[in-house]
Amino acid sequence: MQPVRHPLAEGVEFLGITDDRFKTAQLTVALLLPLQEQTASLYAILPYLLRRTCAAYPDFSALQHRLNQLYGARILADVVRIGSNQALVLTAVSIDDRFSLNHEAITLQCAELVRSMIFEPALKDGLFKDDNTELEKRCLIELIQSEINDKRMYSRHRCEQVLCEGEGYAVNRYGTIEGVGALTPVNVTSAWKHILNHAQVRIVYQATNRGNIADALGKSFLSAKDRDPVSLITSEIRNNKRNISEVAERLDVYQAKLVLGFKAYEESGDIAAMRLMNALLGGTPHSLLFKNVREKLGLCYYCSSSYDRLGRVLLIDSGVDEQNAKQAREQIIKQYDAVCRGDFTDTDVESARTGLGNQFRSIEDQQSSLAAWYIGQSLDKNVSTPTQAADDLNSVTRERIVNAARSINLEAVYMLAGKEGEHAGQ
């Protein structure tokens, strides 16, 4: 289904999706800014602070009572990386108005609550409260530590840092533990005021009736006197270096992690072909990497690839025994070279096309995944639906797949292995 898309204010865009398949309505507000080391932690704490309270409901009990009045509505916060940009996200989930008693406008009241959280937080002497700030700092540090403890995620991010050094894409969306530790109510409040005036805003609303939701949110952004939205990073300027940076680290892990990072340099490549090429190479259970490197040769515990079209980055990550790492790398590159030569069967292509098409179509089965899809799509001039993305795969030829594979360069190899002579259960 094609969303209704229109601007509400300078740098503020509304996407409305009319859908009667769900009993719930979902409102997602994403404030986007370029991802930078010096501001990542400062911005990352904001959606979690804003979610806690607002001036009208200044403590947890009052806010929870209000949510209970709205049929148990929920307010969720998140921080997402979109290409080289950081998205600060607040989401309200409630029952759809058609299920409320006496046809109450529950979704409009939820929109007003979200608006109040963003523009009218509970402050003390003009600043975010000390206790709330300290609590959210601890929670944010725990989020960063949880990613470090997840060695597969940690290894992928380390490869991105090596591959995209100096780019926003290499910055952790939560910032750093040191950066979070340095946050204070003063600089956090200053950051909140900054994003209200300078963030690009994407609002995605999914329900059976759009009502006055756009007006309820848009009026506050329109009234901002100094609104001057930043330009988002839609394409990093890159020099084609064509050399491979290799980094190896040792930590307390039992299973080694091997990650290969590829970059694309064309600003507007063949997106459908890149997606299908990635699915063929390692993006589905029928992929060449899974069939040959993992199943046939048994060199990896897992081996898959992923492609980020906004970052123009393809990663191949695998879990291996350290003694097999060299051979696994050789075989992974062998499969990539096979795609570059067109050395794959029509059955391989059709399996990848079917698997990826089903993945796209399943996006519309959940409101949360559909909102995330459209927030990412909103950085493009033309918004495509998941179904359109799936249909675009049908016209991708073998030649386009080969050209897509040849358009990327291997530029980073990251290896995480256990400490020499030691093993730990990870």
Topology:
Elements: E1 4-9, E2 12-18, E3 24-34, H1 40-44, H2 46-52, H3 60-69, E4 74-82, E5 85-95, H4 106-119, E6 123-124, E7 127-128, H5 130-149, H6 151-163, H7 177-181, H8 185-198, E8 200-207, H9 213-222, E9 245-251, E10 256-264, H10 271-283, H11 288-296, E11 302-308, E12 313-320, H12 325-341, H13 346-362, H14 367-377, H15 386-392, H16 398-406, E13 408-418
Parallel strand pairs: 2-8, 9-13
Antiparallel strand pairs: 1-2, 3-5, 3-8, 4-5, 6-7, 10-12, 10-13, 11-12
Helix pairs in contact: 4-9, 10-13, 10-16, 11-12, 12-16, 13-15
Key traits:
six-stranded mixed sheet; Cytochrome Bc1 Complex, Chain A, domain 1; 2 domains; 426 residues; five-stranded mixed sheet; 23% strand; 42% helix; alpha+beta
Structure description:
- There is one protein chain.
- The chain is of the alpha+beta class.
- It folds into two domains: 219 residues, Metalloenzyme, LuxS/M16 peptidase-like (Cytochrome Bc1 Complex, Chain A, domain 1, 2-Layer Sandwich), CATH 3.30.830.10; 174 residues, Cytochrome Bc1 Complex, Chain A, domain 1 (2-Layer Sandwich), CATH 3.30.830.10.
- The chain has 16 helices and 13 strands.
- Strands 1-2-8-3-5-4 form a six-stranded mixed sheet, with helices on both faces. A five-stranded mixed sheet has the order 9-13-10-12-11, sandwiched between helices.
- Helix 4 runs parallel beside helix 9, helix 10 packs across helix 16 and helix 11 packs antiparallel against helix 12.
- The longest helix is centred in the first third of the chain and has 20 residues.
- It is globular.
- The model has no long low-confidence stretch (mean pLDDT 93).
